[in-house]
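Why do we care about 3D structure at all? Because function follows from shape, and shape follows, mostly, from sequence. That is the central idea of this module. The next example makes it concrete: a single protein chain, its amino acid sequence, and then its structure expressed as tokens.
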Amino acid sequence: MSRLSYLSLFLDNSLLILKLTRFSDRQLFIRRAPNQNLITIFKLTICKPNLKPNKNLMEILDVCCGGKLFYFNKRHPDLITCDLRYEENLQFAGNRVVNIIPDVVADFRNLPFKNESFSLVVFDPPHFKRIGVTSYMSKKYGKLPDDWQSLIKIGFDECWRVLKTNGTLIFKWNTNQISIPAVMSCFSQMPLLGHRTTKNLETHWIVFFKN
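And the structure:
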């Protein structure tokens, strides 16, 4: 039986359940994005070659990884990355290229993981609402909808759901268009601490601890 026909047997509407024996029978759940074909979904299953054997689930989850730009090790064996998009080699003026290649295609408002699955969750959602839909910045970082408060609130609550007790959630935000107090009003939990990168930059890192 070919790999492609094997995948087809498990395809059921929006959810693909794929059993990979080389990952010690680990089940990988991949939600289909709009206009996502089966061949592209199959590519997602082979972009994580260094999964640890005999381990049922990774310990670290990035729910909207984008281009994984702030990682020192994008192939960390305990890391699983998600994004709603799968974009490969998008070309822009000035030799700029966008690559968004998550391990799992998923909407962070509806994550395909059980409650309390991860020790560390990274939440770095889109920060901008006033950018062109087809612009380089939009393709690279994503664009917030008009009802962005609902998006952030649901996304945060979903991150909290899959975070283990005594686990850590790291939230990253840029205040170029939306302030920290405005986005903090969307959270159902109080942060433990926060840090702005420098006095002149607008990127903030905020840490939550689930006890």
